[in-house]
Amino acid sequence: MNKHGIDIVEVGPRDGLQNESKVLSTSDKVRLIELLIKAGLTRVEVGSFVSAQRIPQLQDTAEVLNSLNKSTWSRDARCSVLVPNRQGLENALGAGAKEIAVFIAASETFSQKNINCSIEESLQRIKAMQDLIKQKNIQMRGYLSCVLGCPFEGKVPVSQVLDLTQKLFNLGCYEVSLGDTIGVGTVTTASALMKALKSEVPMEKIAIHFHDTYGQALVNIYACLDFGVRVIDASITGLGGCPYAPGASGNVATEDVVYLLQGLGLHTSIDMDLLLEASRFVNDRFQRPPRSRVSQAMVMTD
């Protein structure tokens, strides 16, 4: 937790870029991460060691991580990578990773569609990494997707989310990020989930990862802050999306989250001008106008 009380985990270089049809060059990825860190983001997810056949956009993660480990400016940030299994973990460690993220789904059908295994099998994959994680003394973050709804099963029981959150903690995750993967959550459903969690798990170890498909991400984040959530996942300029949600507009934009927090008096260490520089950089590379509301407004007022 930073001294300002709110941590933003920047997921654009991984969760964002993996859903883009255009593939950025390794040098552009490194430059984007550099701009994000210079803007004040201290936690950045920089890539993934999922199979290159499944996620070709991130097949150069080892090269990206190697460049970051050699740089001096990246030492002020924690750079993490996503791993799907023990082989992915071994590849990540070989590339110099010091923090990893693992993932499971709260919906059985989504788990089968997304990672081709059951929820229990996905938990076993994480368990199979335990000896190596302890041996190398690296930190592990957990993702739990579809916590507020599944494109196949609809509503996901709160009890299921709570049970799997506790299992991720028991497996050694220092933090669990709860994902509204298809962006169907509302203030009512988000609040109900947080209320149930608050009495069972330490809220300082809970993060939220909301997509903005229906324009509800910011209000849902605002609602969760009242329950003690202090870690928020966000993606520069709203990069990303979900292939199972037609028309999904992607992750909530980092710029919009920062503007919300600043408006609430919850100032972060992030410099908005430098953050907008990172937003402009990646939008220029994709040759498109800014997606976030804050970026659009700033362009209009320039």
How are helices and strands ordered from N to C?
Answer: EHHEHEHEHHHEHEHEHEHHH
| Uncertain stretches | none
User: What class would the helix/strand composition place it in?
Assistant: alpha/beta
Shape: globular
Fold-level CATH name: TIM Barrel
The value of Rg in angstroms is: 18 Å
Q: Give the CATH architecture.
A: Alpha-Beta Barrel
**Percentage of residues in helical conformation:** 40-55%
Number of strands: 8
Major sheet summary line: 8 strands, parallel, barrel
Proportion of residues in extended strands = 5-15%
The CA-CA distance between the termini, in Å, is: 34 Å
Word description of this protein:
This protein has 302 residues and is α/β, with parallel strands linked by helices. It has one domain (7-301): TIM Barrel (Alpha-Beta Barrel). 43% of the residues lie in helices and 15% in strands. An 8-stranded parallel β-barrel has the order 1-2-3-4-5-6-7-8, surrounded by 7 helices. α3 links the parallel β2 (43-48) and β3. α2 (26-38) packs antiparallel against α12. The model has no long low-confidence stretch (mean pLDDT 92).
Features:
single chain, 302 residues, alpha/beta, 43% helix
